[in-house]
Design goal:
Radius of gyration: 15 Å
CATH class: Alpha Beta
CATH superfamily: Gcn5-related N-acetyltransferase (GNAT)
CATH topology: Aminopeptidase
Strand order of the largest sheet: 1-2-3-4-6-5
Order of helices and strands: HHEEEHEHEE
Number of domains: 1
Distance between the termini: 28 Å
Number of strands: 6
Strand content: 35-45%
Oligomer: single chain
Largest sheet: 6 strands, mixed
Length: about 140
Amino acid sequence: MKEEDLPYILEIERQSFPNPWQETTFKGEIYNHPISFSFVIVNRLLDRIAGYLVFWRIENEVQVNNIAIHPDFRRMGIAEAVLKQVLYQLEKEGVKFVSLEVRPSNFAARSLYRKLGFEFLGIRKNYYHTPREHAFVMGKPLG
């Protein structure tokens, strides 16, 4: 992910979440090395950004902070394929655990995470704003 990608990323973000990240948040992630890893998912055929993934890696643990796919590219298995590849690579690099938060109302994301082996770990009360909602914490051991 680079700053010049941000107009496309912000478009996807606004179409994906009721309380979208701001440009400054994405810029912070781009430059938060060596903790933050920010990637764009590109449809090479159309030369278009189809989505993005942001996660933090601290030692042998990873926190998935944000993943979204543009509505034009949803239901094609892109998020699943990207997450599978990233989890595989992280496991090869010695990561032992991956966690994330997800809105209880985001049934599609929760279903994907369960399919990939993430399990429910707990609830963070009033984690999300606009609208106010708890977060389900999910995690997956690797290795």
